Amino acid sequence: VGMVTVGYQYSLDEKNGTATTTNYYENQAYGISFAVNDDLSVSYGEHKSDRSVTTGATADVENTAKSLQLSYTVGGLSLKIAETSTDNANYTSGTTKDLDGTTVALSLAF
After folding, report:
1. What is the pLDDT confidence band of residue 23, given thresholds at 50, 70 and 90?
2. Is 69 left (phi over 0), alpha (psi -120 to 50) or beta?
3. What mean pLDDT comes out for the span 8-19?
C-alpha cells in the first residue's frame, strides 16, 4: 500500500521422523518495508522456526532470526546494509549458538 509493503508466511514441513529425529518444522515469517523515496528503502524481517522432535533425549528447539536492512540506489550504484541476529542457530540452544552479523554490499552497473 503506497510506500509500505507487508508480507507474512506460514509453513509446516512434516518429516515424520523416528525416535530422536525431527518430526516437523513449523515456520512463521513476516517482513515490512518502507520506501522513503525512489532511492532509499528501509525494511525489517523476522523468522521463527520451531523444530519438533519425536520422543527421545533431544528437546524441541525454536530458531529465530531478525534482520534490519537499508538500501540506497542512485543511478547504477546500489549500497545495501543488513544487520542480522539469530538465536539458537542450527536448532541448538545456548548462547554460543546465538549469532550476529552485518552485511555491506556495493553494486555498480555499467
Report:
1. confident
2. beta
3. 82
Radius of gyration in angstroms for the set of CA atoms belonging to the chain, rounded to a whole number: 18
Q: What is the DSSP letter of 91?
A: G
Average pLDDT, integer, range 79-103: 87
How many whole angstroms separate alpha carbon 42 and alpha carbon 64?
Answer: 21
Report the DSSP pairing between strands 99-108 and 22-35: unpaired
**Residue among 104, 50, 47 at smallest CA distance from 78:** 104
Backbone phi, psi, residue 91, to 5°? 55, 40
Amino acid 74 reads V
> Which carries the bigger pLDDT value, residue 90 or residue 82?
82
- Residues 31-45 have a mean pLDDT of 96
